[in-house]
Amino acid sequence: LNLPVAPEELERRLREIGRERSHHRHPFHRLLQEGRLGRGQVQAWALNRFYYQSLIPLKDAAILSRARDVEFRRAWRQRLVDQDGDTEGEGAIARWLLLTESLGLDRELVVSCQGVLPAVRFAAEANLRFVRERSLLEAVASSLTELFAPGALAERVAGMLAHYDFVRQEALAYFQARMEQAPRESAFALGFVKREARTPEQQEAVMGALIFKCDTLWAQLDALFHAYVQPGQIPAGAFVPEDR
Amino acid sequence: LNLPVAPEELERRLREIGRERSHHRHPFHRLLQEGRLGRGQVQAWALNRFYYQSLIPLKDAAILSRARDVEFRRAWRQRLVDQDGDTEGEGAIARWLLLTESLGLDRELVVSCQGVLPAVRFAAEANLRFVRERSLLEAVASSLTELFAPGALAERVAGMLAHYDFVRQEALAYFQARMEQAPRESAFALGFVKREARTPEQQEAVMGALIFKCDTLWAQLDALFHAYVQPGQIPAGAFVPEDR
Q1: Count of CB contacts below 8 A, A vs B?
Q2: A74 Cβ neighbours under 8 A, 6+ residues apart
Q3: Which residues of A7-24 are buried (b: 16+ CB within 10 A; e: fewer)?
Q4: With an 8 Å Cβ cutoff, is B59 touching chain A?
Q5: Closest residue in chain B to residue A85, using alpha carbons only
């Protein structure tokens, strides 16, 4: 007998997935926030993460493009504003470029997305393809990794400021803004998922979507670890830090 | 020898396509603005057109979802605001519902999109699929039908007010707003197309995209004419006016 679980139980299971699979727990993130990376490794992280970052508004627009409900679209549209801002220099993407610049990376190199690890590219693009091809419910559920963001972001910011003399407070404006935006966004997405996932199959699909999204974030950090930490094999064409 | 034409020549050819194929010239639109339709026929038009209307924000979000340039996205995003508004009752979709309501159509019937002619559905969906599947350049070019809108909209509004006692000025708020928005939007899209279509192949693709879009609008009016004017064969499941 296959019955749906209560919305609260679904939420509990989703948070459980986050506890086990959230990329905040990845060894690379641990090294990052414990101050155990060199400047070149932090550069590699920021440059690769920009690629993922640059696809987020495309991902959110793809979700918008499948949402037939005006109210849903009005709420989700705010994510595009958060990402792209209203004018030059505003929004999450511009704030991430503040970080990469303060780390000494050439802006044009970062924006060109040259030097990004192929595995990071593939994982970020898998995420975009997922929201285009799967159901709207799964697409929304795949955004739920934000649910686990605020605490982890605060910890990362504190750790980076404490341990790296090459990281200035201003360069972390991205994280400050995300700590405010992520709870609003994840509350909306969680409410939608709890309301719309009514059958056991839909609930399974929702959990599968969150696991998938966690996998895409984890795989990006695996690739960074492999290339820049251990064994430190940088694939041809990928970014090579100067301090290496 | 296959050479690209100058951007101004491309614009001239696009406007030529509009003169020949714009749906404003369709016999159904002529009857509409000359006051030669009955109330039920105007209802059928407004109800069917709502379906096309309701897909426009999805179409624009699909274009956003493929645009890697932040500035482009910031500009195109405004279309979502124009369509959906910032709050309940705002935006083009809400204004179209003012029109259908003032024509005596039940709001829930219209929003449910029941009774829409299958051919209208297929044509509107072909438009959405086109922007999802073709190049960004073609997707933008397919939006250029707005280039021909302002004059035609003014004529339609004047004609409808002059001829139909069941059409009130307030019900035409949609058209008033579009007359302001369409020139801004089409100027942006035309500038993009003239700048980006550099090879003969791209210029051909741009013209093809505009012809395709004109075809999808024309086909919708053909279906309305067939069902509600001549021969007046309403397919099973489609809206049947009370005054028929």
Answers
A1: 71
A2: B84, B85, B86, B87
A3: beebbeebbebbeebbbb
A4: yes
A5: B74
Distance of alpha carbon B235 from alpha carbon B233, whole angstroms: 6
Q: Is the ipTM of this complex over 0.85?
A: yes
CB contact under 8 A, A73 and B64: no
Contact A141, A202 (CB under 8 A): no
What single-letter DSSP state applies at residue B147? G
Q: Is the CB of residue B183 less than 8 Å from the CB of residue B153?
A: no
A33/A49 Cα distance (integer angstroms): 15
Contact at CB, B64 and A57, closer than 8 angstroms:
yes
End-to-end CA separation in angstroms for chain A: 58
Please indicate if any CB of chain A lies within 8 Å of the CB of B58: yes
Cβ of B73 and A80 within 8 Å? yes
What is the 3-class SS of B128-146, one letter each residue?
HHHHHHCCHHHHHHHHHHH
Query: Are B64 and A64 inside 8 Å of each other by CB?
Result: yes
Alpha-carbon span B59 to A59, nearest angstrom: 15
CA distance A93 to B121: 38
| DSSP-assigned letter for residue B6 | P
Please give the Cα distance from B165 to B173 (Å, whole number). Answer: 17
pLDDT per residue, tens digit, chain A (244 aa), is: 689 999 999 999 999 999 999 998 999 999 999 999 999 999 999 999 999 999 999 999 999 999 999 999 999 999 999 999 999 999 999 999 999 999 999 999 999 999 999 999 999 999 999 999 999 999 999 999 999 877 788 888 889 999 999 998 888 999 999 999 999 999 999 999 999 999 999 999 999 999 999 999 999 999 999 999 999 999 999 999 998 7
Structure tokens at A138: 């799964």
Contact status, residue A53 vs residue A93, Cβ threshold 8 Å? yes
Measured between CB atoms, does A57 come within 8 Å of chain B? yes
Q: Are B136 and B73 in contact (CB under 8 A)?
A: no
Closest by Cβ to B74, choosing from A54, A68, A84: A84
Place of tokens 């979507």: A209
Please give the distance of CA A115 from its chain centroid, rounded to a whole number: 19
Three-class SS of A98-143: HHHHHCCCCHHHHHHCCCCCHHHHHHHHHHHHHHHHCCHHHHHHHH
